[in-house]
Amino acid sequence: MDAAPTTSSIEVESTQVLLALSGPQSNLLTEVARQSGADVSLRGNTILVAGDADDVKLAERFLRDAAELVGKGFEIGPNDVASSMRGLRADPDRSLTELLDETIIVTSRKRPILPKSRAQRQYVEAIRTHDLIFGIGPAGTGKTYLAMAKAVQALQAKKVNRIILTRPAVEAGERLGYLPGTLYEKIDPYLRPLYDALHDMVDPESIPRLTQAGTIEVAPLAYMRGRTLNDAFIVLDEAQNTTPEQMKMFLTRLGFGSQVVVTGDITQVDLPGSAMSGLVVVREILDGVEDVHFAELTSGDVVRHRLVGEIVDAYARWDATKQQPAAIRADRRPHQRSRR
Question: What is the pTM for the complete model shown?
Answer without folding.
Answer: 0.69
